[in-house]
What we know:
Elements: H1 14-88, E1 96-104, E2 110-119, E3 123-130, H2 135-154, E4 160-167, H3 172-180, E5 184-189, E6 192-196
Parallel strand pairs: 3-4, 4-5
Antiparallel strand pairs: 1-2, 2-3, 5-6
Amino acid sequence: MSEMMVEPQMGLTFEQVWAALMELRKEGAETERRLQETERLLKESSAEFDRRMRKSERDFNKKFGHLDNRFGELAEHLVVPNIVKKFNALGYHFRDVSKERKFYRDDGTIAAEFDILLENSESLVGVEVKSKPVERDIGEHIERLEFLRRRRDELGDKREIRGAIAGAIMPEHIRLATLRAGLYVVEQSGDTVRIEEPEQVRGW
């Protein structure tokens, strides 16, 4: 039986090992560079995405805020022609009605503005008109009414002040919250309006 002769293999030289290490180092540096570039691009993409989202949000708010104002104006035009008659049916006998009535602080800045203000010799009713009222509108309207009370007192005007919230669309929970606050609810009903009186009308 003949034996196979295996020639011993030569080991790697120092130069070969060193060259391999340098190649690995080069590849590692390139990989690190690519990772850093990828991270930079991701950050830039994220920043650009955030910028575009903020711009879209601003554009949305501007566009639909304006649209909401237009709905408010439309609702106001629908409410005004009928609201005097409806309140007079409740026994008020209003003679005067004004739109966008402003009241000022001593420094000349606007402190309160009423979309509709009804007046007679005994009472005033301030009406806030919204396309679709939200709960915040109730609290803000009460603040207007409180300011009006203070201003009327300063002028010696003792007429009773009451309030109402009018909406083209009146969510049920807002309707109930408005009535609980002692304010009238004015809702669009066909080509006229319907007024709902709270159990206890709040006066100022």
